[in-house]
Specification:
There is one protein chain. The chain is α+β, with helices and mostly antiparallel strands and about 170 residues long. It has a domain of about 100 residues: Creatinase/methionine aminopeptidase superfamily (Creatine Amidinohydrolase). It is built from 2 helices and 10 strands, in the order E-E-E-H-H-E-E-E-E-E-E-E. A 3-stranded antiparallel beta sheet has the order 1-2-3, with no helix packed on it. Strands 6-9-10 form a 3-stranded antiparallel beta sheet. A hairpin with a 2-residue loop joins strand 9 and strand 10. It is globular, with a radius of gyration of 16 Å. The protein starts with 9 loop residues before the first strand and ends in an 11-residue tail after the last strand.
Length: about 170
């Protein structure tokens, strides 16, 4: 699935249904997805449905996911295991009583395909290498309420990382 240089950025808003235990709950995600020189990129920011405001509980969940993402990004550098990056996000969500709602991995490699190695997940022993491009995308999904995921693309470097996304991570309310 190679992209062309003309497919620089594609923007769309999705209304997704997440089946969880037979119950479907919608989450609105503005997704800025695209391709440049054959490489894919992804960006997710949750937005409450139009004409609704996030309640106190959802705001707290959002802050927890935001903190989890920040912790995972801070852990990213060459030589760190993928499991250590995943644990950084999970530890924050566990501290805030949300670990059971984090039902997917923290991220994955990004390149010519949507999901590439390395896999940023619990127990992964593969070490990140300088030059890897990965997603960091923790999220919580609460049945009957909705889901929150914050996703950014990160370049792994020696002793540091570079977040490629320049979009704010604040809660957006329409």
């Amino acid at each position: 699935m190679a992209c062309t240089v003309h497919e620089i950025l594609l923007q769309s808003v999705f209304l997704k249904d997440f089946p969880r235990g037979g119950v479907h709950f919608p989450a609105s995600y503005p997704c800025l997805n695209g391709c440049y020189r054959g490489l894919l990129r992804f960006l997710n920011r949750p937005v409450p449905l139009p004409h609704s405001r996030a309640g106190r509980r959802v705001r707290e969940w959002y802050r927890s996911v935001q903190e989890a993402q920040e912790a995972a990004v801070a852990a990213v550098q060459a030589g760190v295991t993928c499991g250590e990056v995943d644990a950084a996000a999970r530890d924050v969500l566990k501290k805030n009583g949300l670990e059971q709602y984090f039902v997917h991995s923290t991220g994955h490699g990004l390149g010519l395909e949507v999901h590439e190695e390395p896999r940023i997940a619990r127990g992964q022993t593969v070490r990140l290498e300088a030059g890897n491009v990965i997603t960091i995308e923790p999220g919580v999904y609460v049945e009957g309420v909705g889901g929150i995921r914050i996703e950014d693309d990160v370049v792994v470097e020696t002793g540091r990382n570079e977040v490629l996304t320049r979009v704010k991570r604040d809660l957006i309310e329409l």
